[in-house]
Structures are given as structure tokens and as C-alpha cells.
């Protein structure tokens, strides 16, 4: 149902507010806030007045009961409407809050920490938007700057999603298990993300999840951690014209297909990687690769690999397959479904890698520096 349709003949909705001081309340809403009178009755001794404005229809009842409620008015410049006052109280007790219509995106300051999240330790999945199940991969969210979620849809079939957009500065979707059919604004007809595929969702691109396979699992990494998801009830997807090079907030949409990707040597000996194309599409804001261990085949054991440090804001890894020992000031075994964040300046390395080891690694920014820690000579 689009924004212009009605159900069962419904033409409008009203918010009903008590207003014992009807005349004063009416004057407050019309003279101070710019509402208009839509209906009054009875004419000789009004007890009900309906006012309209800013997409609202409010019914003021002199004999009404109940709480006076709260109204929020979203303004281009909130301070312009009521002489700089941002919170007002009407004579009937209704609180009116004036807020920004399109406030700048707030990205909290980074609070770096080491995080190790094990799938076996997180048995509770919370139910989120469109019935999807979520679990936190960075519980402290690095101070609210980043969020990583493991999302799954156990049952296959159509997803009760709607066209929407996210107010973010970065968002990556990686298909871990199963497959999902999606559609994006200006990116052509719907397509399927298979296991190993990824999509960069640039800021505020409209999109929709259409259907999934049984047991779908995806990894989502976003900045900031708390961000708005806004429905678009008018836009139909797919859009008529494909514009794959369109700029969305300085970023381009990316669809990475694992089946077409090339593997190249990685910065750590014994590993190779396939780049997801995120760095190029974000202008270096972020980067992402899938890396896998090929050490034994290439003559590397990994046993004598030195610790290394980095200077990234976020260095997040999710173990897709296999297992290894994470040496980060102590040895921790990590295996499929586990994830970890290594803060800047902390020495770390993977040892005893299984032949199946494969990880998704996401870094912000893309061009971070990684430096091996060479032990000092005695």
C-alpha cells in the first residue's frame, strides 16, 4: 500500500487532545504555531475545534479526557518558528517540541577497545526490522561509532520489507550463508546476492529486501552505530533508468560477486585476498577484503610471523570458515562465526591457521598502515 492509498475508505486520521481552555489552546496553535482551523462545532458554542497543519489533523475537545500528549514539529530551522524557543507547552498541557527536519548526521567519538565475540557465547538473537534476527558482533560499539551485526532469516521466501534508506556514512552488506534477492535505486532490476557476495550501500540509497533462501545469514557493518532507517512510501523499485555511476553522498553503489573475483597476495605472508571494491567506491573512507590462508601451499608456516600493529579507527574481522589462534597479548582460538576488533597500536597475528581459514576484514579508513613489530635486539 503506497502513501496515497487508503484502506476501507479511511480518508484521514486525527489526534484527539483534551482542551478545557479551548479558546486559549486554539489561539496558541493558530497564532503561535501556524495551524489552521478545519472545523468548529457547534457554531454557537464551540466545544470541538479541528485544526490542520504540517501533515497533522488535531481535534481539540473542551470536554476531552486523557493525557495532553506531545507533538514534534520538524523544521528547516527550528529556532525560526517560535522566536528561538524549542520546547513549548500549550494552555491545555500539550508539549510541543521543535526539532530539525534533516539534522546533520552525528558520529560519536571513537572509544577503541579489543573485542572478541564468539558465536557460541551469543545464543540470543533479537528480532529487528522486517522480522530479521540480529546479534551484536561489537557489543560496546566502540563508543557508538561503529556497529557490526550478524543477521539471519531462518525461513525462506518473501521478506516483509519495504523501500527504505539509511542515514549512515558507511554501510556494507556481506552475504555469509544462503542467498537473498534485493533491489536498489538506479541499479537496474532486482538481483541475487549469493554466499560470498557483498554490496556497499552508500548513504541514503533506497533499497528493499525481496526474498531470501532458507537459512540466510549476512554480516552488516555500519557507521554510526545508531542511525535512522527511513521508509519511502512513494518510490517504486526498480527505478526506470539504471545509473550505476550515480553519486550518493560521495560514494557509489558496489555489487561484488565472489564468482568473478580475483585472488591476489595479501599484505600478510601466507594469505591471499579478494578485494570487495569498497575503497575505490568510498574514496578511501573504508575498505573490505575476504582473506584466506594459503600458507602451507606457498611455503609459509606462520609460526614465526611477528606481531603487527595498525593505525586504523576500526579493524574488524569475522571468521567465515576454518579456525586459527589469535595472538593478541594472549592466545585465543577463533573459529567460524567468531569475530574480533583489534584496536590501533595493539600487536596481533594469526597463528596455527587451518587450511580452510577464511575471514571478512573491514577497515576504516581503507588506507591504514600496518607495521610488523620487530623484537628489539638484546
Descriptive overview:
This protein has 378 residues and is mainly beta. It folds into 3 domains: 86 residues, 2,3-Dihydroxybiphenyl 1,2-Dioxygenase, domain 1; 143 residues, Jelly Rolls; 113 residues, Sandwich (Jelly Rolls). It is built from 3 helices and 32 strands. It has a 7-stranded antiparallel beta sheet with strand order 8-29-26-31-24-23-22. The protein has a 7-stranded antiparallel beta sheet with strand order 9-10-11-19-14-17-21. Strand 15 and strand 16 form a beta hairpin. The radius of gyration is 27 Å and the shape is elongated. It starts with 14 loop residues before the first strand and ends in a 6-residue tail after the last strand. The model has no long low-confidence stretch (mean pLDDT 92).
Tell me the number of helical segments per DSSP (H or I, 4 or more residues long).
3
Low-confidence stretches: none
Largest sheet entry: 7 strands, antiparallel
CATH superfamily of the largest domain: Jelly Rolls
**What percentage of the residues does DSSP assign to strands (E)?**
35-45%
Category by helix and strand content: mainly beta
**Number of β-strand runs:** 32
CATH topology of the largest domain: the name is Jelly Rolls
What is the level 1 CATH name of the largest domain? Answer: Mainly Beta
Oligomer: single chain
As a whole number of angstroms, the C-alpha radius of gyration is 27 Å
* Alpha-carbon distance between the two ends: 73 Å
Number of domains: 3
Shape summary:
elongated
What's the mean pLDDT score?
92
Q: Under the CATH scheme, which architecture of the largest domain would be assigned?
A: Sandwich
Lateral strand order in the biggest sheet: 8-29-26-31-24-23-22
Amino acid at each position: 500500500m503506497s502513501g496515497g492509498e487508503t484502506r476501507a475508505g479511511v480518508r484521514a486520521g486525527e489526534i484527539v487532545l483534551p482542551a478545557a481552555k479551548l479558546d486559549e489552546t486554539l489561539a496558541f496553535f493558530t497564532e503561535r504555531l501556524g495551524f489552521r482551523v478545519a472545523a468548529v462545532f457547534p457554531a454557537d458554542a464551540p466545544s470541538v475545534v479541528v485544526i490542520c497543519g504540517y501533515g497533522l489533523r488535531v481535534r481539540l475537545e473542551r470536554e476531552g479526557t486523557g493525557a495532553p500528549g506531545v507533538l514534534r514539529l520538524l523544521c528547516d530551522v527550528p529556532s525560526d518558528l517560535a522566536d528561538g524557543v524549542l520546547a513549548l507547552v500549550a494552555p491545555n498541557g500539550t508539549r510541543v517540541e521543535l526539532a530539525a527536519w534533516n539534522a546533520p548526521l552525528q558520529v560519536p567519538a571513537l572509544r577503541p577497545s579489543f573485542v572478541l565475540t564468539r558465536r557460541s557465547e551469543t545464543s540470543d538473537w533479537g528480532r529487528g526490522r522486517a522480522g530479521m534476527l540480529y546479534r551484536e558482533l561489537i557489543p560496546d560499539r566502540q563508543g557508538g561509532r561503529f556497529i557490526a551485526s550478524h543477521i539471519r532469516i531462518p525461513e525462506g521466501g518473501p521478506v516483509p520489507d519495504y523501500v527504505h534508506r539509511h542515514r549512515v556514512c558507511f554501510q556494507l552488506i556481506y552475504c555469509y550463508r544462503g542467498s537473498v534477492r534485493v533491489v536498489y535505486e538506479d541499479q537496474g532490476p532486482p538481483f541475487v546476492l549469493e554466499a560470498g557476495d557483498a554490496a556497499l550501500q552508500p548513504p541514503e540509497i533506497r533499497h528493499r529486501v525481496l526474498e531470501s533462501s532458507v537459512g540466510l545469514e549476512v554480516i552488516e557493518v555500519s557507521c554510526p552505530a545508531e542511525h535512522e532507517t527511513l521508509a519511502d512510501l512513494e518510490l517504486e523499485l526498480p527505478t526506470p533508468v539504471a545509473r550505476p555511476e550515480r553519486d550518493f553522498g560521495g560514494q557509489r553503489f558496489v555489487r561484488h560477486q565472489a564468482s568473478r573475483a580475483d585472488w591476489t597476495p595479501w599484505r600478510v605472508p601466507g594469505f591471499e585476498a579478494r578485494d570487495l571494491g569498497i575503497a575505490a567506491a568510498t574514496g578511501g573512507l573504508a575498505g573490505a577484503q575476504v582473506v584466506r590462508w594459503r600458507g602451507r601451499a606457498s611455503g609459509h608456516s606462520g609460526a614465526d610471523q611477528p606481531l603487527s600493529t595498525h593505525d586504523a579507527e576500526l579493524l574488524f574481522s569475522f571468521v567465515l570458515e576454518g579456525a586459527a589462534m589469535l595472538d593478541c597479548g594472549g592466545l585465543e582460538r577463533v573459529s567460524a562465526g567468531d569475530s574480533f576488533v583489534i584496536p590501533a597500536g595493539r600487536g596481533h597475528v594469526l597463528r596455527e591457521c587451518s587450511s580452510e581459514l577464511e575471514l571478512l576484514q573491514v577497515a576504516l579508513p581503507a588506507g591504514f598502515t600496518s607495521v610488523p613489530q620487530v623484537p628489539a635486539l638484546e
